[in-house]
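Progress note, sequence design subtask.
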Protein backbone atom coordinates (compact mmCIF):
# COMPACT_ATOMS: atom_id res chain seq x y z
CA UNK A 1 0.00 0.00 0.00
CA UNK A 2 1.37 3.37 -0.98
CA UNK A 3 0.34 6.66 0.67
CA UNK A 4 1.60 10.17 -0.02
CA UNK A 5 2.99 12.66 2.51
CA UNK A 6 0.02 15.02 2.37
CA UNK A 7 -2.43 12.26 3.19
CA UNK A 8 -0.30 11.19 6.17
CA UNK A 9 -0.24 14.81 7.37
CA UNK A 10 -4.04 14.97 7.19
CA UNK A 11 -4.64 11.59 8.81
CA UNK A 12 -1.85 11.72 11.41
CA UNK A 13 -0.76 15.35 11.91
CA UNK A 14 1.14 14.75 15.17
CA UNK A 15 2.98 11.74 13.83
CA UNK A 16 3.91 13.62 10.65
CA UNK A 17 5.23 16.56 12.68
CA UNK A 18 7.28 14.25 14.89
CA UNK A 19 8.77 12.43 11.92
CA UNK A 20 9.72 15.68 10.19
CA UNK A 21 11.20 17.32 13.30
CA UNK A 22 14.02 14.77 13.86
CA UNK A 23 13.71 15.59 17.59
CA UNK A 24 14.31 12.00 18.64
CA UNK A 25 16.86 11.00 16.03
CA UNK A 26 20.19 9.34 16.76
CA UNK A 27 23.09 9.09 14.41
CA UNK A 28 24.49 5.67 13.55
CA UNK A 29 28.26 5.75 13.67
CA UNK A 30 28.84 2.30 12.26
CA UNK A 31 27.31 -1.09 11.60
CA UNK A 32 28.80 -4.34 12.88
CA UNK A 33 27.73 -7.86 12.13
CA UNK A 34 29.75 -9.35 15.01
CA UNK A 35 27.74 -8.89 18.22
CA UNK A 36 30.70 -9.27 20.63
CA UNK A 37 32.78 -6.62 18.86
CA UNK A 38 29.81 -4.27 18.74
CA UNK A 39 29.12 -4.65 22.45
CA UNK A 40 32.75 -3.94 23.39
CA UNK A 41 32.84 -0.75 21.33
CA UNK A 42 29.41 0.57 22.27
CA UNK A 43 30.04 0.45 26.02
CA UNK A 44 33.63 1.71 26.14
CA UNK A 45 33.14 5.39 27.02
CA UNK A 46 31.33 5.17 30.36
CA UNK A 47 31.98 1.51 31.15
CA UNK A 48 32.54 1.20 34.87
CA UNK A 49 31.93 4.92 35.36
CA UNK A 50 30.12 5.89 38.55
CA UNK A 51 28.81 9.48 38.65
CA UNK A 52 30.18 11.55 41.54
CA UNK A 53 28.70 14.44 43.52
CA UNK A 54 29.68 16.96 40.83
CA UNK A 55 27.91 14.92 38.14
CA UNK A 56 24.73 15.00 40.22
CA UNK A 57 25.08 18.71 41.00
CA UNK A 58 25.44 19.46 37.28
CA UNK A 59 21.91 18.08 36.79
CA UNK A 60 20.48 20.62 39.27
CA UNK A 61 18.67 23.80 38.29
CA UNK A 62 19.03 25.61 41.63
CA UNK A 63 21.44 25.99 44.52
CA UNK A 64 18.76 24.49 46.79
CA UNK A 65 18.63 21.30 44.70
CA UNK A 66 22.43 21.08 44.80
CA UNK A 67 22.41 21.43 48.59
CA UNK A 68 19.94 18.55 48.83
CA UNK A 69 22.27 16.37 46.75
CA UNK A 70 25.26 17.26 48.95
CA UNK A 71 23.30 16.53 52.14
CA UNK A 72 22.02 13.22 50.78
CA UNK A 73 25.46 11.97 49.72
CA UNK A 74 27.03 13.18 52.96
CA UNK A 75 24.36 11.40 55.05
CA UNK A 76 24.92 8.16 53.12
CA UNK A 77 28.68 8.45 53.65
CA UNK A 78 29.39 8.72 49.93
CA UNK A 79 31.29 11.98 50.49
CA UNK A 80 33.14 13.10 53.59
CA UNK A 81 32.04 15.98 55.80
CA UNK A 82 35.16 17.86 54.71
CA UNK A 83 34.44 17.36 51.01
CA UNK A 84 30.78 18.31 51.53
CA UNK A 85 31.82 21.54 53.26
CA UNK A 86 34.20 22.47 50.42
CA UNK A 87 31.44 21.90 47.88
CA UNK A 88 28.96 23.90 49.97
CA UNK A 89 31.42 26.80 50.15
CA UNK A 90 31.82 26.85 46.36
CA UNK A 91 28.05 26.57 45.96
CA UNK A 92 27.47 29.50 48.33
CA UNK A 93 30.23 31.68 46.85
CA UNK A 94 29.83 30.94 43.14
CA UNK A 95 26.51 29.13 42.58
CA UNK A 96 25.47 25.85 41.04
CA UNK A 97 26.80 26.62 37.53
CA UNK A 98 30.33 27.01 38.92
CA UNK A 99 30.51 23.20 38.87
CA UNK A 100 29.97 23.12 35.12
CA UNK A 101 27.22 23.48 32.58
CA UNK A 102 23.93 21.71 33.20
CA UNK A 103 23.94 18.10 32.07
CA UNK A 104 20.98 17.63 29.77
CA UNK A 105 18.64 14.65 29.72
CA UNK A 106 20.22 11.52 28.22
CA UNK A 107 23.70 13.04 28.75
CA UNK A 108 25.46 9.67 29.01
CA UNK A 109 23.69 8.34 25.92
CA UNK A 110 24.58 11.44 23.88
CA UNK A 111 28.18 11.73 25.05
CA UNK A 112 28.97 8.10 25.64
CA UNK A 113 29.24 7.14 22.02
CA UNK A 114 25.74 5.64 21.93
CA UNK A 115 23.86 8.18 19.84
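Output:
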Amino acid sequence: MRIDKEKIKKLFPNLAAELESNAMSYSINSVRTDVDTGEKVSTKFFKGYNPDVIDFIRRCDTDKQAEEIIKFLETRGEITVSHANKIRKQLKDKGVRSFGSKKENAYYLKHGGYG
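The mean pLDDT is 79. Work on this subtask will continue into the next period as scheduled.
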